[in-house]
Write a structure and sequence with these properties.
Blueprint (H helix, E strand, L loop, with lengths): L2 H16 L4 H17 L1 H17 L4 H7 L3 H16 L7 E6 L5 E8 L2 E6 L4 H12 L3 E5 L5 H17 L7 E3 L6 H6 L8 E5 L2 H10 L12 E5 L5 H13 L8 E7 L3 H15 L2 E4 L1 H9 L9 E4 L13 E7 L2 H11 L4 E5 L3 H10 L4 E4 L19 E2 L7 E2 L6 E8 L7
Parallel strand pairs: 3-4, 3-6, 4-5, 7-8, 7-12, 8-11, 9-10, 9-11, 12-13
Antiparallel strand pairs: 1-2, 2-16, 14-15
Helix pairs in contact: 2-5, 2-6, 2-7, 3-7, 5-6, 6-7, 10-11
Length: 425
């Protein structure tokens, strides 16, 4: 048995022990994790600093470095997320679709853990905590394989989790980190269907596509976010500008950050200068189609000196920028905006800004995405923001789970039938 096979076997054993635990034991484990994050901030930050400095030396992009960084503020936010997860209802044992059949049998579906969750992720040490916490609460064991660029951070966090859950009486092997950075282990992990029930990739398009193509077990695809905001003809200018600013600038390296702004031609003369005024102060590079460029060049002298205007290229549509870059297109109708999103969207997050209820409902009905928002920032498509505590991923799959995956998305179910001697006629 290889080292990875041994990890899988101990994870399977731990998952069976977890499935027997009550909510109080799991919640205590989560509180221990949150306490440990605060008590060991300096150790985690020191480990993360090694990864961050090494990343800078090898030339990692600003977007990757931002996802890699852990500081006191981010660790405090992680601790809050873990406590929020502990406060959520335990999905295990929940019954739904209950009914009594004509023969008197009481039929229901009961939520159960999936079993062992495998996660392959890049540059996101926070995922070590998010997935561990959600798996523990939902009764699943976790096998974690982070990227080499975050190995010191992930090792420190994983040991913190294992110690914390052991103090609550949970099996330490309910959360295991693959410490080797050998890429060959990913090949082996993708074939471990006897040990891993569900595989979740968190990273770039190349990783997600590889897992989708090669995994022998069910896998969740997603995380590639080409996100649009369509500003309709009836949109409030101030609202549109505020939403566009938040969606692009608040944290541009995330998958739910805005990539392309579509603006109705009747709204564009008022909306685009206001958006550009705010984006310019933040240093956003704006890649415009010809109509948007004409509008903004006409008022360029009134805008911030740091405004960066360029002509959009074909590859700027359907591009996930993960940086302070956005493409802008002027469209003639809602139908044109819908067609653009259909062609270039990734099924992640799409939004409309409008005062027209009918237009809003058409957008909600016709856009194919895991999350569709009306008069709200794309940055809200997040497990914490949606009240899930955190997320293991934002899925763009259409089977099993879609959008932010929280506790319930980490469960399966079994049919239960309570009878009183019924037999099949």
């Amino acid at each position: 048995m290889s080292e990875l096979q041994a990890i899988g076997a101990t994870a399977r054993k731990a998952s069976r022990e977890l499935a027997k635990l009550n909510s109080a034991a799991k919640n205590q484990a989560l509180h221990n994790i949150a306490d440990a994050l605060m008590a060991h901030q300096s150790d985690v930050v020191a480990a993360n600093r090694k990864d961050y400095e090494a990343g800078k030396q090898v030339g990692l992009s600003e977007a990757v470095l931002d996802r890699l960084l852990l500081d006191g503020k981010r660790l405090e936010a992680l601790a809050v997320d873990v406590r929020d997860i502990s406060a959520l209802p335990d999905p295990i044992g929940e019954e739904f679709d209950t009914k009594v059949l004509p023969n008197g049998v009481r039929l229901a579906r009961r939520r159960v853990p999936i079993g062992v969750i495998g996660a392959i992720y890049e540059s996101r040490p926070n995922v070590t905590i998010d997935i561990s916490a959600l798996c523990i609460k939902s009764g699943n064991a976790a096998i974690l394989r982070g990227g080499k660029e975050a190995i010191h951070s992930n090792t420190a966090l994983a040991e913190l989790v294992r110690d914390a859950i052991a103090r609550a009486g949970l099996p330490r092997d309910a959360a295991q980190l693959i410490k080797s950075t050998d890429r060959k282990l990913v090949d082996e992990m993708l074939k471990m269907k006897e040990h891993i029930d569900l595989l979740i990739p968190r990273g770039g398009a190349e990783l997600v596509r590889r897992v989708a193509a090669e995994a022998s077990m069910p896998a969740i695809t997603g995380g590639i976010g080409v996100c649009h905001i369509y500003v309709d003809r009836s949109a409030d200018v101030e609202m549109a500008a505020a939403i566009a600013y938040n969606a692009k600038v608040q944290r541009p390296s995330t998958c739910n950050a805005l990539d392309t702004l579509l603006v109705h031609n009747e709204a564009a003369p008022k909306v685009l200068p206001e958006v550009a005024r705010r984006w310019g102060k933040a240093g956003v590079e704006i890649r415009c189609d010809s109509a948007a460029l004409r509008i903004l060049q006409a008022v360029e002298g009134e805008l911030d000196d740091g405004l960066k205007l360029t002509s959009a290229k074909p590859e700027d549509w359907g591009q996930e920028f993960l940086a302070l870059v956005a493409s802008v297109r002027v469209v003639g109708s809602l139908d044109e905006a819908l067609a653009h999103i259909q062609e270039y969207g990734s099924g992640h997050t799409e939004a409309i800004v409008t005062q027209d209820y009918e237009a809003a409902m058409r957008f909600v009905d016709q856009v194919d995405a895991g999350a569709v928002l009306v008069n709200a920032s794309t940055r809200l498509n997040d497990g914490g923001q949606f009240g899930l505590g955190a997320e293991v991923a934002i899925s763009t799959s259409k089977l099993h789970a879609r959008g932010p995956m929280g506790l319930r998305e980490l469960t399966s179910y079994k049919w239960t039938a309570l009878g009183s001697g019924q037999v099949r006629p």
